[in-house]
Amino acid sequence: MPLKLLPCKSFLTKSRSFLLTTISAADAFRAHSTTTITTAAATAASSSPLLKPPFSISSAAGADLDAALISSSFKEWFKNASTHTVFDRIFEVLAACADSEDSTIDRALSALSLRLDEAFVIQVLHHSPRLSDATNSSSGNNFLLLRLKFFDWAGRQRGFRHTRATYHAIFTLLSRARLMSVIHDWLQSFAATRQQLPNLFFQRRHIRFHEILVVGYAVAGKPEIALQVFGQMRFQGLDLDAFSYHVLLNSLVEESAFDVADTIFSQISSRGLYCPFTSCIRIKSLCKQNRLDEAIAFLRELDVEGPEHRSMTDHTTGIIVNALCKQRRFEEASKLVEELGTARTYDVWIRDLIDAGRTNRALDFLSSKKESEGYTPDVVFYNKLLCQLLRENKLDKVYEVLVEMRDGEIAPDKITMNAALCFFCKAGMVDVALMLYKSRMEFGLSPNSLAFNNLINALCAKDDVDEVYQMLEDSLEHGYFPGKQTFWVLVGVLCRKGKLDKMGKLLDVALQRDPSSMTPAWSHYIAAYITALCNANRPEEGYSVLQKVTTSKNPQNSFVFTSLIRGYILLRRGDMVCKLFVEMQDCGHSPSRSLYKEVICFLCDMGSYEQVLNLLETQLSRQKPSPRICYNYFIYGTGCAEKPELAMEVLRHMKSAGIEPNTDTYIVMLSSYLKSQRISDALNFFYGLCKERGPSNRLYNLLIAGLAKAQKLDQALFFWKEVRGKGLVPSLQCYEELVLSFCSAGDYYNLMKILKDFEDTGRQISPFICNLLLLHTLKNPQLRRTWELVTSSEAEAKSDGVESEAKHSNRLMLGQLISAFSCGIRIKEHLHCLEEVVERYFPVDTFTYNILLRALSMEGRMDYACELFDRISKKGHQPNRYTYDIILHGLCKQGKKEEAEVWKNKMILNGFYPTWYTVELYNSTK
Questions:
Q1: How high does pLDDT run on average in the chain?
Q2: Which stretch of DSSP H or E encloses residue 645?
Q3: Pseudo-torsion of CA 476, 482, 486, 487, nearest 10°?
Q4: For residues 12 and 469, what is the distance between their CA atoms, to the nearest angstrom?
Q5: Which helix (H) or strand (E) segment is 697 a member of?
Q6: Which of 3, 53, 138, 2 lies closest to 490 in space, CA to CA?
Q7: What is the CATH T-level fold of the domain 832-926, as seen in this structure?
Q8: CA 425 to CA 453: how far, in whole Å?
Q9: Residue 555 CB-half CA count within 13 A
Q10: For residue 720, how far is the Cα from the chain centroid?
Q11: What are the Cα distances from residue 230, in Å, to 227, 236, 237, 304, 414?
């Protein structure tokens, strides 16, 4: 999800103050200064616990005004850097004629009346074009194509010939674009063409053929071929000039061919070509060999007289600082910067600190050098700092850097503009970001992928679906597809808002863009979309999406199949349910027991018993899960569908297949009879098992609990006595079901027998049983009278036997609990700490609190009920829907409509809704 800034109030105040005071339209600012200052003060003084985003104000009109003023300020700054130079004009012409013939390009560029020379051509090749949005290219390779077109055009102009320097410039651009093969192919073609032409042609053109080949192969990362060409030159009695020697030497160092590089060093020295560039490459070689101490010593020995030597020393110092930082030797690098550093070294030091994630130190260094030496880095380094701060979400620091750039009159480039867009999005000022984005034609802003991602994230946070989709289409037009996190946020918004058709288009674009991008990581997005389609009762479309994206390398997760199966269950499509159930297993997912139950119950509800048996055969043929588990799942599923005949058919099928049923099989079979209220069949099956295998405690527990749920209390009591007579101890769940059933029936006499027997087992009384006793004690005073009667009868009949401590403790606790609340709530003392009375006997939970709240509400003590509600959260318990509903219902009964409305809003804010009975009572309250 997009990160929203929750800044400190001081940051809000100073950022708002700066942005509003830097508006170029001074008259507009003065006209609204009183309003904005008052609003800023009101915002800063807000007592809300949630700090507001920057520049937000109370009124909508004021918010629009602030956004307009801030965006106007940044537009003015951006326009200062948007002045088109002749270089920009050249690239605009090239972009407009990108698909035209050479003759068209010739006419268009000739119309500019350019004076070509070596320096001018190199400037054009190294220029970063600022194109209008209409002619903007989407990638750096497209810019490179425009540069190549200019290079080709310049070489065809009368009076100009390309030099080694211009060739080196174009080769370097191709190398940075990792197009080494292009350079290699071009050089081979160039060499083949040269063989077909007389030497006089080349002499007339003043092109040193071999040197171009050496420079080209060296820049292309092919120093071995460059050395071969160099060898051919030496064989013909030719030699390289100083420029070519150093390009070759640098290439050898870059490729770590240090032995050969030492030989070239010797050649350069013997020919008297040694210069500051040679020293620079020597230091680079030492650094690449991790001989940093030697490099530092060599640097200190250099003669730094003269501006050229001083410049190269700055450069070599930067190389050593960079090498030290790569080895995490920051303290040594810092000392070297302080001792020998100049502005160029400072740039390298700041860049390395940023790369190492030490942005605070970089900011401190920048601040100190700016104050002491007036140092101001180039916009490239400011941009790097901005991007790193944005990644770290240090938005207050981003703001300060933007202020510093603005105050220092540093012309922003497209990276700065994109960083500003990202800042406004992350800082919660999406309106300002949108205004800048929509005005991009005015100052030549070309949003990059990061800016588009942040804009989409910010708009998603506002749930502005139409604006989000428009931004998505703009992003796609520029060739940018949302990143994974942004795509996930986008999918969530589109699915949540029901814009499934737009989501479908987005998925189609993703598939057309790169089908291989549908990796397993995308399955979460696909699952969300398919689930949304199923929830919208469109599982057919969901299945179509599944077929599009599922491949052997990209199997979807089980949640997708589960959603589709449930979607087709709602459509009553048994054929598709079975098909998807099988496809789910083909993709390597094992359906859960609950999914088996859902599918089988659906097929049984449809009356498709044959499909159930066919699905069983299909599952058995897979051998996974094991046949016994598979049969148990189907018996369990048919039992939950209340089809015991079909469950028995599956059991017979299991026995005929030679698979011996286990205890789990008989448990689920007996459960199927009990769930369908076939008590006589359940008893017959139980007796048959007892004769065949002997009774087990698990079967007794299931039978007793099932009879209790079916309100067959006499039979449940009979089997309970039988199991106790055999020395077996029923489970806690069995006792809880018995207690629940006898409490619900009001049979407190037999309830006392159950509780006494439970005490005899020596177990700890569960909170469930205590809650039931508390509830019925408050409801019916008969429970206490029965307890006292049974207790007194036992006391008279008790012999001199010693009662165990555990039994005595349980009985005493239950007796005290029943006595404490037997007369209701109204006459109780200390109602302000009612739950503390209960806590003496057992650990309370939310259900206990709901009982106490209901009791207070029924007695009309809503003041104490509200106090008790406040203590629930403080004690670590989470109120649920019924907790809120009890309070709301009690207030409505007393006719307190205003208080009830407050509680209703609080309830809805926490994600709960009143019951229908409470809603009717609320609506009828005057």
A1: 79
A2: helix 644-656
A3: 90
A4: 31
A5: helix 697-709
A6: 2
A7: 1.25.40
A8: 10
A9: 11
A10: 55
A11: 5, 10, 11, 32, 42
Residue 104 CB neighbour total at 10 angstroms: 13
Can you tell me the mean pLDDT for 527-531? Answer: 77
The share of the chain scoring above pLDDT 90, in percent, equals: 16
The rounded distance, in Å, linking the Cα atoms of 764 and 479 is 68
- Convert 359-368 to b/e letters by CB count within 10 Å (16 or more is b): bebbbebbee
Q: What is the DSSP string of 131-182?
A: --TTT--SSHHHHHHHHHHHHHHHHTSTT----HHHHHHHHHHHHHTT-HHH
- pLDDT for 282 beyond 50: yes
Domain residues of the chain, as ranges?
9-79, 590-694, 701-796+804-824, 832-926
Report the amino acid identity of residue 800.
Answer: D
- The pTM of the full predicted model, rounded to 2 decimals, is 0.60
In the numeric block, which tokens belong to residue 476? Answer: 């796609």
CA distances from 796 to 153, 481, 635, 789 (A): 119, 85, 52, 11
Instruction: Give the whole-angstrom CA distance, residue 450 versus residue 478.
Output: 12
How many angstroms separate the CA atoms of 734 and 659, rounded? Answer: 30
For the stretch 874-885, pLDDT in tens is 888 888 999 999
What token pair was written down for 6?
């929750």
Closest CA to 217 of 256, 248, 257: 248
Query: Which value, in Å, is the radius of gyration of the alpha carbons in the chain?
Result: 41
Query: Tokens 């020293």 appear where?
Result: 279
What is the phi/psi pair of residue 802, to 5°? -90, 125
DSSP state of 746: T
Q: What is the pLDDT of residues 730-771, one digit of tens each?
A: 889 999 999 999 988 888 888 888 888 888 887 788 888 888
CB 118 within 8 A of CB 112: no
| Residue 469 burial by Cβ neighbours in a 10 Å radius (0-12, 13-18, 19+) | buried
Two tokens, residue 61? 């009109």
Q: Are 216 and 174 in contact (CB under 8 A)?
A: no
